[in-house]
Write a sequence for this structure.
């Protein structure tokens, strides 16, 4: 992969932005039971924070994407990162569950903009032959953020430093860290060459572009709904499954989750690169097929070791499929709205799938606390749905990216 120094810095900035965005999001998944205890409620009630975060992300994708299509990818990406960092940290000061849920909804708006901005900036800045591998790198930011959250949770949570025991509130204060990326972006990352070139011409607006391409946009939203069920349905409640159903301590939950996310990174890199050889559609299909036989090991094993193996294979499959998505959506999207449309499609799919967490928790509690059953049900059904739906997708591997089409 032959990239210039500037292109490598652009990819790094986009990767870090998504990694620390995911870190902020996944911190919550480790803390659901503790927040529920402090606010005197149950896990399904607190898991509505997951729903609200996912449900509001499409607003941020649209808002920040529109700004980026008008003012540039780089400055709006910096604004977006500062926004989600500050709002994420404010959750530490929530006096009650209502305020906490409201802040997580606002965090969702800020979080929703990053993926579209980062992926469009990176994809428009690199040669076509590098897109598949870079797509895998970018999407690996998500499991890398989850892995980082798992490491931090395992190392810091409930530890005593200077007489102060680190609880869930202190964990959310770590959300301030991503704001430091802005300094790197400001000094080292250039604006998208495609955007700079497009400023010399008159570009069609969002509504005009959507009128021409509404069929692809609608199809992509449905596809992303299933993709978000696939990822969040296998990730968000997994720490709760390990704690509540198996009674594992924070250290055990942490290392199993770390193993899962190592698998996710392997899958994202491998299938992103593979998509350059066998195509985007075939790579996604293959990844989903791998998920199906891993379900019994992942959801019904009884020992930490076997659960870790199952989680590794499952996340190879899940994030393997996801590793193709940044490049696939950018290739499907018209150039004039590339900062807006891929992110909006992604987050609109998130909205459609946003109640998955509370719904899964409800299924588990109704089944006598069997989170394994709820996880297995979601993973199996959704993997099959993606295999069917992706076969109808256009294949636009390697097309030239401009901001005028």
């Amino acid at each position: 992969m032959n990239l210039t120094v500037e292109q490598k810095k652009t990819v790094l900035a986009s990767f870090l932005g998504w990694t620390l965005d995911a870190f902020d999001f996944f911190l919550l998944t480790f803390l659901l039971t503790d927040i529920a205890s402090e606010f005197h409620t149950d896990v399904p009630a607190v898991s509505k924070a997951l729903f609200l975060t996912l449900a509001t992300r499409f607003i941020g994708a649209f808002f920040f994407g529109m700004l980026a299509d008008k003012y540039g990818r780089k400055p709006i990406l910096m604004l977006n990162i500062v926004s989600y960092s500050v709002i994420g940290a404010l959750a530490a000061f929530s006096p009650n569950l209502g305020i906490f849920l409201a802040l997580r909804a606002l965090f969702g708006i800020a979080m929703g903009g990053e993926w579209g901005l980062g992926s469009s900036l990176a994809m428009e800045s690199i040669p076509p032959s590098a897109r598949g591998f870079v797509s895998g790198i970018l999407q690996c930011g998500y499991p890398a953020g989850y892995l980082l959250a798992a490491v931090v949770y395992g190392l810091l949570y409930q530890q005593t430093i200077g007489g102060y025991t680190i609880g869930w509130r202190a964990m959310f204060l770590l959300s301030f860290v991503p704001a430091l990326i802005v300094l790197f972006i400001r000094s080292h990352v250039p604006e998208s060459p495609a955007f700079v070139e497009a400023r010399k011409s008159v570009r069609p607006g969002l509504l005009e572009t959507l009128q021409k391409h509404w069929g692809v946009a609608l199809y992509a939203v449905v596809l992303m709904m299933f993709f978000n069920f696939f990822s969040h349905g296998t990730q968000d409640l997994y720490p709760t499954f390990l704690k509540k159903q198996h009674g594992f301590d924070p250290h055990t939950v942490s290392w199993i989750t770390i193993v899962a996310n190592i698998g996710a990174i392997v899958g994202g890199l491998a299938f992103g690169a593979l998509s350059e050889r066998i195509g985007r559609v075939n790579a996604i299909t293959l990844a989903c097929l791998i998920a199906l036989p891993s379900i019994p090991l992942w959801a019904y094993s009884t020992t930490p070791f076997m659960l870790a193996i199952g989680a590794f294979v499952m996340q190879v499959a899940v994030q393997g499929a996801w590793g193709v998505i940044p490049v696939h959506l950018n290739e499907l999207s018209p150039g004039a709205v590339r900062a807006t449309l891929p992110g909006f499609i992604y987050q609109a799919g998130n909205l459609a799938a946003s109640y998955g967490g509370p719904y899964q928790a409800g299924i588990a509690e109704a089944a006598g606390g069997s989170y394994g059953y709820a996880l297995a049900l979601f993973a199996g059904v959704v993997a099959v749905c993606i295999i069917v739906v992706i076969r109808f997708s256009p294949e636009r591997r390697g097309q030239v990216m401009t901001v005028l089409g």
In short: The longest strand covers residues 160-161. Residues 400-405 have pLDDT under 50 and may be disordered. The chain is about 75% helix and 0% strand. The domain at 5-392 is CATH 1.20.1250.20 (Growth Hormone; Chain: A;).
